[in-house]
Amino acid sequence: MGHTIPIWAYDLRWWGTGDYMSVTVDACVKAMEALAPPELASAWDNSGLQIGSRAAIVERIMVTLTVTENAVERAVTDQADLIVAHHPLIFKPLKAVDTDLPVGRAIQKLLSHRIAVYACHTNLDRAQFGLNYWLAESIGLRNHRILEPDLNQEHGLGRIGSLDPISLADLAAKLGKMWRTQVRYVGDPQALCSKIAVCGGSGSDLIHAAWSKHADVLITGDVKYHAALDAAALGLAVIDAGHYATESIMITKVAAYLRTKLPTVTVTELWEGEDPFRY
Ligand SMILES: [Zn+2]
Question: Among 3.30.70.560, 1.10.287.130, 1.10.8.60, 3.40.1390.30, what is the CATH number of 2-124+248-269?
Fold first, then answer.
């Protein structure tokens, strides 16, 4: 029967924007919740729909890591109806929308252009096939599992798996090349690493979990001086590749996921202007 349908009809975008085809913000939220259930978020987190109405129609989504003013500017230019980001735009409770400050300016611009914002933060970190899963896959870890499982064992933070033995210095250099960033590390440069723990973003809290599961190295970002000393004292190597490099994989992966889930919506990715550090 497929032969009777003209080829253009397979592309649902040609069917117009009648109500039965319209995608709402609500549908986008539900799609994201299927990937990263909101109940997985940390208590201190503020994920979810932050700006906009669930009833609004979405034709274009822009996926990015952080809702910076530059990202808002790009969303306006790209005529995005929804920004899906990892980091919440509104994180600490706002006491005022002060449009002389960056967050207030961003909110004003988003509202005036009717652009919604959805954040999936620690729930995406903990999701079974979320950020840390993608990170482990991108590094090429084999047989990786959750580093610090939640009580239900199905979700949790970080991943741990194996690689062919590689020196700490070579692994750090390889990651720096892959992520086009400077990496720094703690540990003996010649030490061979084969059991590898990873956690995107600020994963220093997993130093103990990585050590107790006999990891040779923990790959993460935002490692502070005292955390580095703690790891060194335990004999655990740590590679700090920065917050941006260890999380930016979510941009492509979330965009690809949304394209599959919502084939009639145009999904763009915003990469540039995110990592503020220069070396
Ligand atoms: Zn982050």
Answer: 3.40.1390.30
> Percentage of the chain surpassing pLDDT 90?
87
**C-alpha 246 to ligand 1 mean position (Å):** 8
* Residue among 119, 137, 136, 149 at smallest CA distance from 32: 119
Query: What is the per-residue pLDDT across 101-125, written as a single tens digit (0 to 9) for each?
Result: 999 999 999 999 999 999 999 999 9
Q: How far apart are CA 30 and CA 171, in angstroms?
A: 38
| Higher pLDDT among residues 4 and 262, named by residue | 262
- In angstroms, what is the span from residue 41 Cα to ligand 1's centroid? 13
Domain with CATH 3.40.1390.30 in the chain: 2-124+248-269, 128-240
Q: Top-level CATH class of 128-240?
A: alpha beta
For residue 53, report the distance from its CA to the centre of ligand 1, in Å.
25
Separation of CA 47 and ligand 1 centre (Å): 12
CA of 6 to the centre of ligand 1 (A): 46
Global pTM reads: 0.90
